[in-house]
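Today's session is about reading a structure prediction critically. Students often jump straight to the picture, but the first step is always the sequence itself: look for stretches that repeat, for charged clusters, for runs of hydrophobic residues. Only then move on to the predicted structure, which in these notes is written as discrete structure tokens rather than atom positions. Here is the chain we will use throughout the hour.
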Amino acid sequence: MENKPNNELKRTLGFGSAISIVVGTIIGSGIFFKQASILDSAGSSTMAILTWIVGGIITLTAGLTVAEIGAQMPYTGGLYVYIENLYGRICGFLAGWMQVIVYGPAIMAAVAGFMSIMMTNLFGIGKEWRIPIALITILAIGIMNFFENKVGAAFSVITTIGKMIPIAAIITFGIFWGHQDAFGQTVSEVNRNSGGFGVAVLATLFGYDGWILIANLGGEMKNPQKLLPKAIIVGISTVLVIYTLISIGIFRFMPADLIHRLGENTTSYLAVKAFGNIGGKLLSIGIIISMMGTLNGKMITFPRIVYAMARRGDLPFSRYLSYVTPKGKSPVIATIFLIVLAAIMMLFFDPDHLSDLCVFTVYCFYLMAFFGVFILRKKNKERPFSVPLYPIVPIIAIGGGIFVLISELFNDPSGVLLFIGIVILGLPIFYAVKRMDKKRMKP
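Below is the predicted structure for this chain, in token form.
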């Protein structure tokens, strides 16, 4: 399993595949399962819809800012590569470590957990089957990604097309056949329990999560300097419009107090009520396919971060983690590694809690990347892509990132400290790996 010079990933991804991965990775469980928790935190249907718009704007400004950076660093590894080039080796390692040990496994576990809720509701089986179903799904999608990246990309295209059916159904039925007022349903109807607008926005960012993962495939895109910014901008803008319309459709069809009572089962209830038992089941299957597409997108991208770090010798057992299959050039050991970590996360955290914590953790490093655009502007006068309305857009991204961190810190300080502690734990591991490398190099 030695990392030979020709042991490289293939540049086979075009614009269509890139857009499908962005949209397919973003649209998954968040928009379908976060409506009730966002409503409870926001306090009214109007504010809940506004949080999806604000979350989308924050994400779009973040995407535009990172697109300028990514166009100048079109390599496999994404955020890990950006942070290292901007701030040095140790900061880069921590960015990669965060994604490999905390963010990646947590986000995959959260999506699989939400999907298993939908599947148990669909088949009418007990809650005790949620974790086994989630584990089997992660394993199955992981095995599919043992093959060439074209296989996973093709699955992303198929699931992205497939997920548009339930999305179009919810939007159309809710807006045109709903009898509720989407705006103006008050706090008294939902018995607001905790959080606030900031926590609600944080929850929407889980729904928008995944936009940066296409950057991890920079080394596998045919023309990353041009395709990467386009894929990020078009993908995020499309999702922002879709999410806003879905939220309006749901509030048009269901009163806020009912959404509050149903919680995570809101979408399943809506599917059956709107389209009957058979139609509801078909719609639920479409939503499950949507979440499988999201999970697949993450399964494509996160092992590339492990691969990029292992190629540098930054991880224990890098020789094995950097292995790619001779024919398909797929990082199979890295994929297995992430499946195991995601399974562990799934056993110890509930999906809703995981989703908020992993968004907080990744935004710590997003903020560093946002500031990095100012650093690169001083160094590089010519760029393949320039963020529009500079410096307003990066400043909005920075402000949004700070807003996210402060909100979650006040909402869940113990969870925040736990995840920060896991990230900091990477420092002694980094130095231990480097000491071992020096010993091996000695004659």
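Discussion point for the tutorial: The CA atoms of residues 62 and 397 lie 5 Å apart.
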